[in-house]
Amino acid sequence: MPLRLLANRLLDLALVLFCVSAIVFAMIRLIPGDAVAIMLGANTEVTPERVAALRARIGLDQPLVTQYLAWIGAALRGDFGTSLWTGRPVIAEIGAQVWPTVQLTVLALALGAGLAIPTGVLMARLRGRFADGAMRVITVAGLTIPSFWLGIVMILALATLAPNLQALGYVPFSEDPLGNIGRLLLPAIALGLPILANLSRLVRSAMLDALVQDYVRTARAKGASERSVLYKHALRNAQIPFVTSVGVNAGYLLGGAIVVEQVFAIPGLGRLILGAIADRNYPLLQAAILVVTCGFVVMNFIVDLLYAVIDPRVRN
Description:
Layout: H1 3-29, H2 35-40, H3 48-57, H4 64-76, H5 90-125, H6 130-144, H7 147-161, H8 177-211, H9 214-221, H10 226-234, H11 239-263, H12 269-279, H13 282-310, H14 312-315
Protein name: ABC transporter permease
Family: Belongs to the binding-protein-dependent transport system permease family.
Keywords: Cell membrane, Membrane, Transmembrane, Transmembrane helix, Transport
């Protein structure tokens, strides 16, 4: 891959992350409520002097531009501040709860993207038949059903059919690998179903376009097997739109995981972010949201690089 292309992508990535950090910082300050008032609570000894002292101690007495420049300067050095409530570095608190979210996102993406290719190819192969129509109806339903609603239904079904199985909570992989996968399987299915529905429809459409191309007819005329025609020739045509959609959906999965985590009582970034919002814990909230948005941006950065690997024309 040319170094010039890589340098341009890295420059774009840095510019996007800078803009995202500014937007995140500004949007958080628009949340109603005062962090100082919440921290002091209903203490009868609250005085204007104490409020001013606490505001100065945590830097909220400075103009927003000054606060942002101080925060972004420290962040570039790896210091994202300390939690207003615990006094711990926010990176430590995020690191303690980011892995359940990462695990859930990766498992949901693996299920959705991994099953989308054979499902989409099968739908294209069965075009015009009853099975194709039924699968298309199911994929439309998968796109429209909210993940959190599906998660609630799955919990109720499991409680009815197998009341002895535990579906809520989280077990670290290092303590119980099977228990870890078992607890994450249902939320991963709930989160990955829309991805499966979306990607399988995309693969079906790309496959149908490819199967009428001249190079596919030539491959069949040379005696290539149907399996070779489908997977070796036609499927290549769907790689770029498939990779694009996988990258975009991976970013959205991070946001969707925050909601699904609440349904399945998983102690991930979702609980951390909601708690930080309620407490107006600005440093923790800024860093946590920035981690989620950075995950989205980095996934699209990786997709851009994969374009150059899949299609040589992009490198030129």
